[in-house]
Amino acid sequence: MTMKSEPFVVNVGPQHPSTHGVFRLRLTMDGEKIVDAEMVVGYLHRSMEKLAEGRTYTQNIPFTDRLDYLSAMSNNLAYCMAVEKLAGIDVPERGQFLRVIMAEFQRIANHAMAIASFAMECGVWFTPLMWMFREREKILDLFEMTCGARLTTNYVRIGGVSFDIPPEFMPAARALLKEMPERIAEYEALLMENEIILARSRDVGVLQPDLAIASSASGPVLRGSGVMWDIRKADPYAAYDRLEFDIPVGTCGDCYDRFLVRMEELRQSVRILEQALDMLPDGPASVNVPLALRPPAGEAYARIEAPKGELGFYLVSDGSPHPHRFHIRSPSYINLTPLRDMVVGLTVPDAVITLGSIDIVLGEVDR
Amino acid sequence: MIFLAEWWDLRDLGNPVGKLLELLGDHGPDWLPYAVSAIVGSITIVVFLLVSLLAFAWVERRLLGRMQARLGPNRVGPWGVFQSIADAIKFVTKEAITSRNVDRWMFWAAPVLVAVPVLVVFAVLPFGEGMVLADLNVGVLFVIAVGSVTAIPIFMAGWSSNNKFSLLGAMREVAMLISYELPQVLALLGVVVFAGTMRMNGIVGWQDEHNTWLIFLQPLAVLIYLIAGTVEINRTPTDIAEAESEIVAGYHTEYSGIKFGMFWLTEYFAGFAIAAIIATVYLGGWTLWGLEEWVPGWIIFLAKLYGLFWLFIWMRGTLPRLRIDQLMGFAWKFLLPLALINIFVAGLEVLIWRENDLAAEAVLPGFAIANLVLAGVLIVAWARFLGRARPSWRPARARLVKELGAVVYGQEG
Predict the structure, then answer these.
(1) A8-366 has which CATH code?
(2) pTM of this structure
(3) B72: which chain A residues are within 8 Å (Cβ-Cβ)?
């Protein structure tokens, strides 16, 4: 005999501890099982794309800080690359390397946050979060000594970077990189072979590779599904073509694989950083660009491998100092699209860790 | 080793109280000693629990701070020791919000009732030879029975809140409590089989008399009881009923102010209760191989209790949360069969021992070793049987792939 039950709607969010902001997941439940999931976004919509049309190209850089506020450096970089492509500006070699250094430090900081919040979703009581914040803090200190800001850095500028690194940057960065492998081993000891994490996240929220590709997911979400795709390899930018690194890829496409991929990316970022610090050339870090930059009429799309996936900026210029169109292809938003297929059939706790394993930031989802 | 002695013998605070009751019995009406002992006993228990709570609310946060590479509360008073007092004041002075559509009576009654069962448990637990409020001859049974009553106020809270998250949390809590009752009972029964009594003081006395703690004779049962106890007190890894990341705060989502404070302190009281039961039943209670002659028994007991509570704090700082079905599966598929085997073996051993009239010194070490080996073998074998979380074909780490665009989904690595 089967019991007939009424569908039951659970609103996870917009006010919920584990929605990473103001995201609403409207779950239709049949008992403990999710039969339908509806994603409601837009609670944090600030109409950045429209606002940007009224400002000059340089004035728009601080907007990008506030997209994915956990990886401001990467956002700055993607936007500036788009403008440079539009205006045909070449960035000096030192600037390219500084961009890589900052982007990779940002990746470590972001992944620390992502892994920690995933672990929090699994119910760990703050321990991994605090451990990872310890290292993230040092990275933010590096940012602070370079550009004065910790979170909304506004560091990468059109034609280069805003400041060259100060003399105390190198020793601090080297010391941090020296202790990182040990710290990563600590995180792995705490989380990776933990039976409860394995039991919670294995075979949960499986994303098939064809669905991942079809929904144009990117970053660790795509790689977790076993697809080797990384903009740093596929379409190298800045100085990535001169650096050696590997791309970690998952096997089963579940939450645990996405977690493993991020864990390994921490190691790879450390590897990239060590090389980049060694190879950092002398010379100017940036070229002079007029403040009221007027790129020739045309369009440009530049993309980078942001910590969360492919971050792209599409700009259309009409020859004026303001962009005619400013479009953001944000990885968080696009990675959310397969969420419904991932959570149907699971229970609420699984849906929560699936959402956690995607690693979204609402500033970027809603723009 | 029984030292009911002069009233000034403070190794056992039962002595002065006993003397007082004797005096009252001699010179007053018959009911007076009963009334006085009940009042003195309950006040002492509540005061002890509140003081422990204030201390441990701070100790826990400092210890977790240490585990998490941070300082923990250090602003209020030296090393932040008055933090718990500040928190208590906050709880009392905060507005207790009652939302409009709650079932008022139940909403109010739940936080009041929730603390009762855990307080009552302490009535039968001996802090010392004479320091027990009611030395029931069915102490073990009483502890089990009262422990399961907690489910009712929690369900009242979840139901009356008229909130889906609260209801989900309450349903989880009830399901968990009922499932874990069984392994818990069976784990305690092993002790009863050995000690031959359900009286808490009798169990302590048996351990003292045979110079062994039951943790050595019943290693598997201790583990089962510890796990089941963790479930009962709602702390990580089994804080499923109030899982923050999933159902906001579970059954106490709608509570604020002192009403939330009651749920919060009940969690600590329940932790103390479980630690106290383990200390009494498995760790020799207030005895410590003759040291109780010199150090007051209640100090020994409290040391064991707090030591065990520290274990709960440690677990909280380390482990993630299980999913409800996994937790239930663990109770029914893992703990229950092992508890059954454990009690069967315990019965067999006692039968061999009693039937052949063997000397305790000769058989008990043998039993201890046999049970330890059995526990190890059973846990490993059963875990193998149920299967490990990671299948062997799955790589332990993310794979490093060179070829751009390659898809390695589902391929063995």
Answers:
(1) 1.10.645.10
(2) 0.85
(3) none
